[in-house]
Amino acid sequence: MAACLKKPIRAKKKNLKLLSFFLTLLFTIYCLSSQRKGMASSSDSIVLYYLKKSSETPLFLQAETWLPIASGVLTGAGPDQLDKTEFISRWEKLFKFTGVSETGVFNSEPVRLFTEEESFRLGELLYKAEIEIPDGLPQAYQVIIKREDPIRPGLRIRRTIFYIRNTPEGIVLEFSEIGQVLDFQTTYSFRDWTLVPISKPEPSSRNSIYLPEIRPEGLEYLNAVTDGEDIRNRILVKNVFWTANPSKKNVGTPTKKIPKTIEDRLRTLQELLDKGLISKQEYEKKKAEILKEL
């Protein structure tokens, strides 16, 4: 009797596995279809999805106000008039003046939101997306950026997610995640870190942006105070910012300098070792101190 029962039990287990697989597949298809987004451009660590205007566009994105991103960064320029070098340079400029507080580190100063390499790559991908807009209509972007954890490569990442849209006021960047730690049981795939639904970001200390006191005109928080709450996850980049110099009105005001990221510091440390400016012992000691901040 026991031997006779084995086959039905196995068949049941197989059926359950198949059912689970199809339910997962249907859920994935549903998520992707309901988001109404398409791949605009990507690299191994940055992905841009374009979002089109439709009746399903989330209200927080204010689709009725959209303008081409390119016309904001290079004022008045159309997709066929973009200067790639200037476009990327201006985009890099933006992230020289945006930072984030490392609240998990004692007495930590704000650090750059993105590294120089990430800023350049993001500008490059956005440029590519803008000149290849499928129908030439204004659109918004969902941007997903991952950083590999040096301690657990392949199993842990830090993910940042934000939205970009251009409005009559200027370009709006709205952050939903900044450096969110994600752990995986097995080596993660591209889909594991990029399959993210479109949802309204909820402001918190974990997705707040730091803007220095001394910065070019036209870079500010969007609706910094709402219902008595301090909102810091949305920034507005007005057209004047792209050609403005850092404001001098607050020169006498003490300000926090945005130091290099941990990746930049490790890279600089390696360069010092390679040039023979520090010993191997000094290198290992300083490296350990930097990694403790993760």
Question: Top keywords for this entry?
Answer:
294 residues; alpha+beta; 2 domains; 7-stranded antiparallel β-sheet; two-stranded antiparallel ribbon; 7 helices; 11 strands; disordered N terminus; SHOCT
Q: What is the percentage of strand-forming residues?
A: 15-25%
Overall mean pLDDT stands at 79
**Annotation field: number of helices:** 7
Total tally of structural domains = 2
Sheet/helix structural class: alpha+beta
Q: Shape, please?
A: globular
H-E string: HEEHHEEHEEEHEEEEHH
Largest sheet: 7 strands, antiparallel
Topology, number of strands:
11
State the assembly state of the protein chains: single chain
**Order of the strands making up the biggest sheet:** 1-2-5-6-7-11-8
Radius of gyration, CA atoms, in whole angstroms:
23 Å
Helix content: 25-40%
Cα(first) to Cα(last) distance is 58 Å
Detail the poorly predicted runs: 1-14, 21-35, 103-107, 249-257
Walk me through what this model shows.
The chain has 294 residues and is α+β, with helices and mostly antiparallel strands. The chain has helices at 2-35, 69-73, 84-96, 116-131, 190-194, 262-274, 280-291; strands spanning 37-42, 46-51, 99-100, 111-112, 140-148, 156-167, 170-183, 219-221, 225-226, 229-230, 234-237. The chain has two domains: 38-255, no CATH class; 260-294. The protein contains seven helices and eleven strands. The chain has a seven-stranded antiparallel beta sheet with strand order 1-2-5-6-7-11-8. Helix 3 (84-96) crosses helix 4 and helix 6 (262-274) packs antiparallel against helix 7 (280-291).
